[in-house]
Amino acid sequence: MKLRIVRAFQVHVFNPLMRRLFALGIVPPGTALLETVGRRSGRLRTTPVGEGRIGDVFWIVAEHGRRAAYVRNLEANPRVRVRSRHGRSLRWHAGTAHVLEDDDPRERQRLLARGHLDRRLNGAAVRAMGVELLSIRIDLDPLEDEAV
After folding, report:
1. What are the backbone dihedrals phi and psi of residue 39, each rounded to the nearest 5 degrees, phi first?
2. Burial of 78 (0-12, 13-18, 19+ CB in 10 A)
3. Three-class SS string for 5-46?
4. Does domain 2-147 have CATH number 3.40.50.2300?
5. pLDDT tens-digit profile of 21-32?
6. Residue 139 Rama label (left phi>0; alpha psi -120 to 50; beta)
7. Domain spans, the chain
8. What pTM value is reported for the model?
9. Is the N or the C terminus of the chain less surrounded, counting Cβ atoms within 10 Å?
């Protein structure tokens, strides 16, 4: 039941709002966009995620684990892009995603949140709404960064 309620809120309210804000160039603190290729449709899909970039690695803790459509998409095609703030502008960063079965997602959130209030708040929301936490590591391709 929790999964249905949270998913409905995300699909119909939260995610469309975040995508609109990004389209306007407004990036809510602690937020990034993940672009995957739909595993069935082949169309590009964008999903708001927590900002988890550390150097050339982008971390995501998926609150619904493999039940999340974007996780199933990146498992089918691990080439993804992440759009996040880079100074005053937004940038797309291409990379390859890896689902980490053996990583502790709660510990990952603690590590990501160190010194970042926005990440700490995002982590609390993920834990509150999540039903099956799963860590994802995206190895970014520094040579393929595109300014947008």
Report:
1. -70, -25
2. middle
3. HHHHHHHHHHHHHHHHHHHCCCCCCCEEEEEEECCCCCCEEE
4. no
5. 888 888 888 899
6. beta
7. 2-147
8. 0.83
9. N
